[in-house]
Amino acid sequence: MPRILPALLFAALLLAAWEIYCATADVSPLVLPPPSGVLRALVVQRHQILHHAGSTILVAALGFSLSVSFACTASVALHFAPWLRRGAMPLLVASQTVPLVALAPLMILWFGFGLLPKVLLVILVTFFPILVSLLSGYARAPGAFVDLLSSMGAGRWQVFRRVTMPSARPAFFAGLRISATYAIVATIFAEYAGARAGIGIFILTAKNNFRADLVLAGVVVSAVLTLALLGALHIIDRTTARRFREASDATR
Amino acid sequence: MLRVEGLTIRAGSRVLVDDLALAIPDGRITCLIGPSGCGKSSVIKWLSGILDRSLEASGRAFLDGRPVPRPDPALAYQPQQDALFPWLTVAENAGLGLEMRGQSRRDARARVLPLFAPFGLEGCADAFPAQLSGGMRQRAAFLRTIVQDTRFVALDEPFSALDAVTRLRMQDWLCARLTETPRGVLMVTHDLHEATQMADRILVMSARPGRIVADIPLTTPRAARTEAALADTRSTLKSLLLKETS
Ligand SMILES: Nc1ncnc2c1ncn2[C@@H]1O[C@H](COP(=O)(O)OP(=O)(O)OP(=O)(O)O)[C@@H](O)[C@H]1O
Ligand SMILES: [Mg+2]
């Protein structure tokens, strides 16, 4: 807990400065509402916000978990088939250069306003970082470990399971964290492009009504959701395999 | 007797090892000594079936006169680093060879645990390698090799990562273990002192191309190997090695 104390302190200072600025400077709350105003908006609109956040959480969670399982499966295939890797990698890299502003409307155009286009967008955005970090993690498996197992008569799959996969664990979680920060943002973007509910819709409506406090309330919710996802990953990382953490702490 | 014949290893057009032949008798320590880069590790890796795929090799291995595959189940390999997996406990690491040879994790554990005390690893079974000292890690690596109960053992510079004192202690210790349960040992080293202390036979390898240029038996019993008794052998080896490196 003491480790997040500096972060909390820093955030508190920032909010205080913002509040004081709004109170002393001649700035309309319609343009820049103070933190207390945003908080009030959050409380007043809590039912609305909860409804929209629920939709966002569903899409992000579904998209992110599908993305993780696809990335894991794809990484194994690409690891064992170098020709597949050489063929698919350039395409995957190219797919990452398509801007979200183009992708999101296309998804809506092709797949309508349901769950599917939004989930697809989240997958498209979060899949690549996980895949790349897995592959680079696999490549980091120590040659001496692989040699040792092979000399014991282990096959390719056994080497993968006993050495390659465990070696990739730190890289895997690093990739998960990167993707997690994209997951909520991608969901909101997809909603913004067209949806019935979601924090993206909440922000869009607030913007159209010139309610800066509500826009900021939406931003707060999106940040909280992202932090919650990162926190969950952190807990999974810590608890699923204590031994891995000890091992990587020691080699650091 | 494990025998290698006509081993040639090439890296592209460069010949690393040229028509090398060597024999590893049962229950004896054979040291392979030679200048850095002469191909000692490559020979051991070839024998253990893990030679880098970018290298081309031809040659044959025989066990008691019969051709054997590589890796041969009768040979246990120990790499230059201790290669303990940081995510496995010491006991799991020690039992890895047994597991790979088809035993269950539980059987492997039951088999390695009684050896922790004689290997100086008491109380370390459930520790992680990062919690051990260099000497203990090396002993854990030896345990992993020895417990596989193979007739032959290939050790690639097993003491190179240790400090001088620990190294001396571990050399005596390993000789003692090998007297308890004799194995045919092929041990790579570039330490003259180590070779003359431990070996029953020393094979000297030349560089570019790698071949065996001298085969020196050591008949003095280990206990009687004083500095004076070994002086002659050492100076012979020294001149051979210096000639090979020049
Ligand atoms: N994969 C490879 N491709 C090309 N050359 C290689 C490869 N592996 C090893 N070599 C070369 O083969 C030679 C022998 O290497 P090896 O590791 O067998 O030597 P060594 O006698 O064990 O040396 P050291 O005492 O330093 O451990 C070296 O000159 C090295 O550069
Ligand atoms: Mg070597």
Q: Could you walk me through the main structural features you see in this protein, from its secondary elements to its overall organization?
A:
- Chain A has helices at residues 5-24, 35-44, 46-80, 82-95, 100-111, 115-139, 143-151, 156-167, 169-193, 199-208, 212-240, 242-251.
- Chain A is built from twelve helices and no strands.
- By secondary structure, chain A is an all-alpha fold.
- Chain A has one domain (48-240): MetI-like fold (Orthogonal Bundle).
- Residues 248-252 of chain A have low confidence and may be disordered.
- Chain A starts with a helix and ends with a helix.
- Chain A is globular, with a radius of gyration of 22 Å.
- Chain B has 246 residues and is of the alpha/beta class.
- Chain B folds into two domains: 2-74 and 152-245, P-loop containing nucleotide triphosphate hydrolases (Rossmann fold); 81-149.
- Chain B is built from eight helices and ten strands.
- In chain B, the strands form two sheets. A six-stranded mixed sheet of chain B has the order 6-7-8-3-9-10, sandwiched between helices. In chain B, strands 2-1-4-5 form a four-stranded antiparallel sheet, with helices on one face.
- The longest helix of chain B has 19 residues, at 227-245.
- The radius of gyration of chain B is 18 Å and the shape is globular.
- The two termini of chain B are 34 Å apart.
- The chains are: A mainly alpha (252), B alpha/beta (246).
- Residues 40-41, 80, 156 of chain B line the site of magnesium ion.
Secondary-structure blueprint:
The complex is a heterodimer of chains A (252) and B (246).
Chain A: H1 5-24, H2 35-44, H3 46-80, H4 82-95, H5 100-111, H6 115-139, H7 143-151, H8 156-167, H9 169-193, H10 199-208, H11 212-240, H12 242-251
Chain B: E1 2-11, E2 14-24, E3 29-33, H1 40-47, E4 56-63, E5 66-67, E6 75-78, H2 90-94, H3 96-100, H4 105-112, H5 134-146, E7 152-156, H6 164-180, E8 184-189, H7 192-198, E9 201-205, E10 212-217, H8 227-245
Parallel strand pairs in B: 3-8, 3-9, 6-7, 7-8
Antiparallel strand pairs in B: 1-2, 1-4, 4-5, 9-10
Magnesium ion binds next to helix 1 of chain B.
